């Protein structure tokens, strides 16, 4: 009997700023096992456009990618960027599920910086200690126009959208081990336009936030300061990164103010968390996103934040053929979100 039932028969879809990734898993011998994966480049900022023409282009790219990757499902769980959603962790009185839903709907405007009738609202209990009178609830809201845009793209590509999930939750699912429930980690995802910073205890979110700095800003400052075109700036960034001893530290000195802004926000998040959880220690920072591979960046962040920094491994919870190990390791930074989405019904 095929263990890939209807609930699990879907693929994860990461609609990024400059590329689209898909990943599909199935259960085999009790473990999530890789079925297929793939990616396709799209023009930068195409996903940011609200025009129907551009949305049609994205839909065609999704359709082509799914076909090229031999995706075997029509069902999709897609990632919602942190910049396109509002996330809050709140405390509520201990109530029944129905009462809790009514209470959250009534009070949500205290936490969401948009009129409630203009957002899709979802919530989940993430902390339920029987000895306490309160529940900890994750509240997520996405503007109606953003949710509708994702739905339209996916339907135009010929698929059915099962759920939209905040990017950070998918990252925690793929980059942390579900049995390590007491371990508190920070995940830093440096993308093209944004850097997402999230703190998790186990896979339960404590802080989720986003800042508008990514590889695009890094390329731009190198281009401007060193008089290079965009392609050359990208090459210099990837080759020399945060290495102070390379080419007289020119790239390092140019990138340092940008990276220091990320460090400042990381340290703010750490301070905010520790002040509210003085007995909890953040064990490490997990880096992901293509920019995380810049030479010298992990060491620079480790020294600046005074924490262990490691590059995330999104294959840690997934089985795959042994002969694919080298190939998968080389692309791991790009697939953390899509794999985390694909793990949604496997890792509880």
Describe the structure.
This protein has 348 residues and is an alpha/beta fold. It has a domain at 178-312: Nucleotidyltransferase, domain 5. The protein contains ten helices and 13 strands. The strands form three sheets. The protein has a five-stranded mixed sheet. A five-stranded mixed sheet has the order 11-10-9-12-13, with helices on both faces. A three-stranded antiparallel sheet has the order 5-7-6. Helix 4 (167-175) packs across helix 10. 39% of the residues are buried.
Known CATH architecture of the domain at 178-312: 2-Layer Sandwich
If strands are numbered along the chain, what order do they take across the biggest sheet? 3-2-1-4-8
Separation of termini? 23 Å
CATH class of the domain at 178-312: Alpha Beta
Low-confidence stretches: 1-7
């Amino acid at each position: 009997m095929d263990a890939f039932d209807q609930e699990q028969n879907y693929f994860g879809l990461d609609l990024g700023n400059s590329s689209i990734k898909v990943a599909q898993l199935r259960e085999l011998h009790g473990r999530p096992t890789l079925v297929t994966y793939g990616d396709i480049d799209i023009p930068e900022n195409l996903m940011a456009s609200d025009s129907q023409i551009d949305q049609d282009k994205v839909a065609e790219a999704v359709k082509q990618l799914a076909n090229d990757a031999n995706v075997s499902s029509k069902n999709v769980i897609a990632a919602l960027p942190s910049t396109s959603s509002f996330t809050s962790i709140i405390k509520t009185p201990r109530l029944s599920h129905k009462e809790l839903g009514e209470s959250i709907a009534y009070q949500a405007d205290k936490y969401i910086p948009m009129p409630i009738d203009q957002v899709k609202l979802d919530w989940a209990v993430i902390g339920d200690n029987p000895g306490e009178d309160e529940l900890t609830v994750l509240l997520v809201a996405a503007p109606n126009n953003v949710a509708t845009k994702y739905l339209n793209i996916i339907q135009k590509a010929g698929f059915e959208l099962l759920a939209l999930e905040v990017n950070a939750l998918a990252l925690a699912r793929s980059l942390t081990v579900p049995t390590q429930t007491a371990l508190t980690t920070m995940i830093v995802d440096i993308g093209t336009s944004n850097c997402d910073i999230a703190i998790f205890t186990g896979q339960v979110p404590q802080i989720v936030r986003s800042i508008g700095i990514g590889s695009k800003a890094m390329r731009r400052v190198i281009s401007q300061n060193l008089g290079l075109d965009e392609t050359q700036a990208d090459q210099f960034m990837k080759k020399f990164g945060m290495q102070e001893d390379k080419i007289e530290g020119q790239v390092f000195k140019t990138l340092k103010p940008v990276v220091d802004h990320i460090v400042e926000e990381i340290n703010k998040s750490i301070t905010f968390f520790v002040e509210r959880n003085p007995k909890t220690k953040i064990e490490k920072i997990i880096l992901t996103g293509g920019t995380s591979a810049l030479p010298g960046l992990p060491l620079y962040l480790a020294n600046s934040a005074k924490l262990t920094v490691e590059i995330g491994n999104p294959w840690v919870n997934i089985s795959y053929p042994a002969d694919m190990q080298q190939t998968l390791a080389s692309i791991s930074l790009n697939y953390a979100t899509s794999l985390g989405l694909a793990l949604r019904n496997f890792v509880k």
